[in-house]
Design a protein that fits this description.
Blueprint (H helix, E strand, L loop, with lengths): L8 H31 L4 E3 L4 E3 L10 H8 L1 H5 L21
Antiparallel strand pairs: 1-2
């Protein structure tokens, strides 16, 4: 685990924001690369260091709004599960002129 214990809360926030911005840029580039491979109808490609396969997959989800309308919210509530996750949101802070 990285050694962050000696960083102030402010430095942690700045570091988190910087890494989040890099992650967003990487995700955008990955999306563009995948779109280009799909445009070319590439299903697999092997380079000097990595092999990539592209395929479609599907998933099915329940329309809970429609189920609640059809069966009643009380019945659906008996089968609902709540999960808790930790969310971190990042926004840029305007820097003050020194």
């Amino acid at each position: 685990m990285p050694n962050f214990h000696n960083m102030s809360d402010g430095l942690l926030a700045d570091r988190y924001g910087e890494v989040s911005a890099r992650k967003s840029a990487c995700e955008a580039e990955l999306s563009d690369l995948k779109a280009e491979m799909v445009r070319r109808n590439v299903t697999q490609a092997t380079g000097a260091r990595f092999a990539v396969t592209i395929s479609e997959q599907s998933s099915t989800r329940l329309d809970t709004k429609a189920l609640k309308e059809a069966l009643g919210a009380e019945i659906i509530a008996e089968y609902e599960k709540t999960s808790i996750s930790t969310v971190a949101r990042v926004k840029a802070v305007a820097s003050e002129a020194v």
